[in-house]
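hiii, so i know i said id send this last week but things got crazy w the move. better late than never?? heres the sequnce for the chain we talked about at the cafe, plus the structure i predicted for it. fair warning i was half asleep when i ran it
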Amino acid sequence: MGFWDAVTGRTRVTKNNLDSLFAVPAAAITLQTAAGLNPTGTGSVCFRSAAGAAFAQTRDEAVQLIKAGTPDGMQAPEVEVSDDGFGFTWLVVHRSPDDVAGLCTDLHAVNTSLEMQGFASGLLCSVIPFADVSGRHVGLVYLYKQGTFYAFAPTGDQKRDNLLEISVRDQLAGELPMETDLSRWFALWGAPGL
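okay and structure toks below
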């Protein structure tokens, strides 16, 4: 931040890097081997819906893009749109747990579609959930406005496993841009797949 920005109270917007989502399949292998956490096949994009027909059309086109973007002979992913109790909308994609690359491509497409149509300010995050055989869940969360990832591991009603979150951060630090500011590790209670 420069002097003039400090005086006027302006902050510079961090440029996101949606292509970081394409590094998640390699990170998924690390989580499988190091922590026994496997992809669930679910991924989601969280955003604040905007009023008007243009936003609804963009959202619907993103859903159709994902459903139509499947090669012949392959089953199209399931896509659903839901609202949470906090005023956010979740576009949820279900694929085979083996297809992390396809899932990340879908999430990238949704983010890019909303961004290109002028709705980037409403994008919050993307979440790729993982689970182990004991029932632990952790979401790998991509913060759109920061361009970084963090782990969110809910353990019950308004509780989270901070030790698991830190462990995932440490395991993936060399593979993904991990969020260093822990105050940005928001709790995503009720996130799809977690």
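btw The CA atoms of residues 50 and 56 lie 8 Å apart. thought thatd interest u
miss u guys!!
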